[in-house]
Amino acid sequence: MASDDSIVLRLEDVHKQYESADREPVPVLHGISLTIRRGDSLAVVGPSGCGKSTLLNILGSLDSPTRGSIQLDGEELAHLSEPELATIRNQKIGFIFQSHHLLPQCSVLENVLIPTLADTGRAPADASERARQLLERVGLGHRLTHRPGQLSGGECQRVAVVRSLINRPSLILADEPTGALDHSTAESLGDLLVELNRDDQVTLIVVTHSTELAAKMGAIRQLLDGRFVADNL
Ligand SMILES: Nc1ncnc2c1ncn2[C@@H]1O[C@H](COP(=O)(O)OP(=O)(O)OP(=O)(O)O)[C@@H](O)[C@H]1O
Ligand SMILES: [Mg+2]
């Protein structure tokens, strides 16, 4: 197949079944094919348990498919070692998880800077300023030295969003980024994601139950029982 630089992600016939020694296998994804181009924005919607988080984890190389092919920027993920995958994740992908996974002993600012430490163990000089600006942007400029335990759930989620943006990823994978937020905070966070997509050409894949957030994306795909049910809603 001819290479096409505009393609960020290409999935072909991806299947996923969770296996464990003491339980029946759980089949979750049944043949997902998907092409994402640079600057695309996609909402993945569907009922609880249909495989959305599973798909997002596989897209971000945090989990591997049982069969099928996944290419990120033209590289077959199955051919890469775990350290190579870790480097790609850190440099290219911003993850926003369903739960925020902040480090309780670190301040807001420190949590945001963690992804910048991977190369040298020290945050680059401009990272702290970018972190402050982004935290200001999501309404947390006055919470820089607080710890996660001193914040509300929605505030923690906003910190996690800023952390996902700190390394200027080219791809953002967001799992229910606004699920824990009130309407106006959710709206401004959705706008921030849309702005990054529009102005910085950040490719965006968002799993959401919010029809409002989904409507802000360029395309919507519905997942049902591990398959996409329609090309475009
Ligand atoms: N590690 C695992 N081992 C076995 N089964 C799992 C595992 N992780 C998820 N599952 C099952 O796989 C199915 C899909 O889970 P997944 O988390 O992808 O759903 P989801 O669409 O993200 O749901 P939600 O909207 O509730 O977050 C569920 O039935 C879940 O119970
Ligand atoms: Mg989920």
Describe the structure.
With 233 residues, the chain is α/β, with parallel strands linked by helices. The protein has a single domain (7-228), classed as 3-Layer(aba) Sandwich (Rossmann fold). It is built from 7 helices and 10 strands. The chain has helices at 52-59, 82-92, 108-113, 125-137, 153-165, 183-200, 211-215, and strands at 7-20, 23-37, 41-45, 67-72, 75-76, 93-96, 171-175, 203-207, 219-224, 227-228. The strands form 2 sheets. The protein has a 6-stranded mixed beta sheet with strand order 6-7-8-3-9-10, with helices on both faces. The chain has a 4-stranded antiparallel beta sheet with strand order 2-1-4-5, covered by helices on one side. A hairpin with a 2-residue loop joins strand 4 and strand 5. The longest helix is centred in the C-terminal third of the chain and has 18 residues, at 183-200. The protein starts with 6 loop residues before the first strand and ends in a 5-residue tail after the last strand. Magnesium ion binds at residues 52-53, 98, 175. Magnesium ion binds next to helix 1.
